[in-house]
Design brief:
The chain is an alpha/beta fold and 467 residues long. The chain folds into two domains: 117 residues, Urease, subunit C, domain 1 (Roll); 338 residues, Metal-dependent hydrolases (TIM Barrel). It has 17 helices and 18 strands. β13, α8 and β14 form a beta-alpha-beta unit. The radius of gyration is 22 Å and the shape is globular. The protein starts with a helix and ends in a 6-residue tail after the last strand.
C-alpha cells in the first residue's frame, strides 16, 4: 500500500468519526501559514471538533492527539477562499442573457431553475478545489436562502452573501420577479433599498457602478454616497464594482470598503494608491473573468486541466458556441467568431493594464483578496481560482503572496465572526484545511495538487468529494 493509498484509507476510516467531532491530529506534515509566511516542518495540527486546538512542532504525547493521520511529505494550508462569486449564474453560455441573449435556445427561466437545482453540486465542486469559504458578491433575494442552505449542508463551503446589486443601469432580461440587479434612481431610493436589504442581514451590500457615455461618474455618485452611508449606519460593509480608475476613486472616496475588480482602463496613480492605503480598502482583482467572455464567444476558450476535470460537465459542454445554430447566435458572438484575433488583442490590452496595477497595489501593501467572479460565462465555479492564481503569478506576485491573498487576506473580505476565524492555522480557528501532495510555495501550480480537504473538522479525501 503506497503512502497516498494508506492516507486515503485512514481518512475514509475516520470520516464518520470526524463527523461526530472526534479529536484528530495531522502528524508530520509541513504547515504553511501564509498570514505571516511561516513554514513549519514536521508539525502536528490537533483538531478537536470543528476547531484547531493547537499547532506544535516535534514529537508530541500520543495520548493527547486522538486519531492520528500521517501527513509525512505533505503540506497543510488553511482552506482557500474565493471572495467573488455569483451563485445565481452557472458559468454556462445562457447565464447572462443581458450580455448574450440565447433565450431562443434555452430560456432564462429554465437556466435559473437549473441553477437552483444544482446548488449542492456547486458547493461540492468548491470543496473539491480546497475552497472552504466563498463570498457571493450579489444576486437575487434568493441568495439569502443559498447562504442558509450552505450553512445546513455538510459538504459545502462557508458562504457570505450580498443581495441584489444597486445599479446605475437596469438589466430587464435578468428580471424574473426577483432581479439580481436593481436600478436605483435617487439617494432616497438607495437608502430605502439598503434598509430592505438590512432585514436579511447581508454580509455586504454591492454597488454596480457602471459608467458609460450615458452614465458619467458624477451622475451616480450621490447614490453611491447614500448607499454607503445607509449601509454603514446598519454596520454593513459595501463592495463596489468599478473597473475605471475614476469610478474606483470616487467609490473609495465615498467610503467603499471593498473594490471587487481591478482597474482596467489606465494605470493607477500615486494618489489612488495612497487613498486605498489610508482607507484600508480591500481589492479583489478578478483577473480570470476579463478573458472568459471574449474567449468563449470567439471559440478560443482556455480552460485549465483543473476546470476540465472538476468543473460541471454540463456547464463546460454548453460553452462551445459552434454548436449553436448560426441563425440563433447574437451579434456579439457572431462578431467575436468572425474576428477572433481582435478579441484576443482586447484581452491582452486589458491585462497589459490590470496586471501591472495589481503588482503596484501589492507592492504598496494594499490588502489583495483572491476572487474570480465565478458564474459569469466561461468562469467556472470552483477551479477557476487556479487560473486566477496563474494570472496573479503573471502579474509578479510570489506563491506565498498569492496564498496569502486566498487565505488571510480573503478572510478579511469575508468579514464578521466567521472571517475572524478562517484563513489561518491557529488555535481556536475553524478546522478548514487543505492537505497538498506538493509544495505550493515552490510553485503556485502545486496549489491544486490536493490530497484531502478538511471543512469544519470533517476530512474528505479529495477524490471522494465529487463521487
Amino acid at each position: 500500500m503506497n503512502n497516498k493509498t494508506k492516507f486515503l484509507a485512514i481518512a475514509l476510516s475516520i470520516f464518520s468519526l470526524s463527523a461526530r467531532a472526534e479529536k484528530i491530529s495531522l502528524v508530520g506534515g509541513t504547515v504553511i501559514n501564509p498570514a505571516d509566511g511561516k513554514v513549519l516542518p514536521n508539525a502536528t495540527v490537533v483538531i478537536d471538533g470543528d476547531k484547531i486546538e493547537r499547532v506544535a512542532i516535534g514529537k508530541q504525547d500520543a495520548a493527547s492527539l486522538g486519531k492520528q493521520i500521517d501527513c509525512s511529505g505533505k503540506f497543510i494550508l488553511p482552506g482557500y477562499v474565493d471572495t467573488h462569486i455569483h451563485f445565481f449564474q452557472s458559468g454556462d453560455l445562457f447565464t447572462r442573457p443581458d450580455g448574450a441573449d440565447l433565450n431562443s435556445v434555452r430560456s432564462y427561466k429554465d437556466e435559473v431553475a437549473w441553477v437552483k437545482s444544482h446548488l449542492n453540486d456547486v458547493f461540492a465542486r468548491y470543496l473539491r478545489c480546497g475552497i472552504t469559504s466563498v463570498v457571493d458578491v450579489g444576486g437575487p433575494f434568493w441568495n439569502f436562502e443559498v447562504r442558509k442552505t450552505a450553512d445546513q449542508t455538510q459538504k459545502a463551503p462557508r458562504v457570505a452573501v450580498a443581495g441584489p446589486l444597486i445599479s446605475s443601469v437596469s438589466r430587464e432580461k435578468l428580471d424574473l420577479g426577483d432581479p439580481p440587479i436593481v436600478k436605483i434612481d435617487t439617494p432616497d431610493q438607495a437608502r430605502q433599498f439598503v434598509r430592505k436589504l438590512a432585514e436579511q442581514k447581508p454580509d455586504l451590500v454591492k454597488i454596480w457602478y457602471i459608467v458609460d457615455k450615458d452614465h458619467p461618474v458624477e451622475s451616480f455618485r450621490p447614490i453611491v454616497r447614500a448607499t454607503i452611508e445607509e449601509s454603514h449606519t446598519h454596520k454593513i460593509r459595501v463592495a463596489v464594482h468599478a473597473t475605471e480608475l475614476e469610478t474606483a476613486r470616487a467609490a473609495v472616496e465615498e467610503g467603499a470598503d471593498v473594490l471587487v475588480h481591478s482597474v482596467t482602463d489606465k494605470p493607477v496613480d500615486d494618489a489612488f494608491v495612497k487613498l486605498l492605503k489610508e482607507r484600508h480598502t480591500i481589492l479583489c482583482p478578478t483577473l480570470v473573468v476579463f478573458e472568459r467572455y471574449g474567449r468563449t464567444f470567439s471559440h478560443q476558450l482556455n480552460l485549465t486541466p483543473e476546470e476540465k476535470t472538476w468543473g460541471n460537465p454540463e456547464v463546460i459542454a454548453s460553452l462551445d458556441v459552434t454548436k449553436i445554430p448560426q441563425d440563433k447566435l447574437p451579434d456579439r458572438i457572431k462578431t467575436a467568431l468572425a474576428k477572433p484575433d481582435e478579441t484576443l488583442d482586447r484581452i491582452k490590452k486589458t491585462y497589459d493594464i490590470a496586471l501591472p496595477n495589481l503588482k503596484r497595489l501589492q507592492d504598496a501593501g494594499i490588502t489583495i483578496a483572491a476572487g474570480t467572479d465565478a458564474g459569469n460565462i466561461g468562469t467556472i465555479h470552483g477551479p477557476a481560482l487556479f487560473r486566477e492564481f496563474q494570472l496573479m503569478k503573471e502579474a509578479g506576485l510570489t506563491p506565498m503572496q498569492i496564498l496569502q491573498c486566498t487565505t488571510a487576506n480573503a478572510a478579511k473580505l469575508f468579514g464578521g465572526d466567521v472571517g475572524a476565524h478562517i484563513g489561518k492555522i491557529e488555535n481556536g480557528y475553524f478546522a478548514d484545511l487543505i492537505i497538498l501532495n506538493s509544495n505550493p510555495v515552490d510553485d503556485i501550480a502545486h496549489a491544486s495538487d490536493i490530497d484531502a480537504v478538511i471543512k469544519n473538522g470533517v476530512i474528505y479525501p479529495a477524490d471522494s468529494i465529487l463521487r
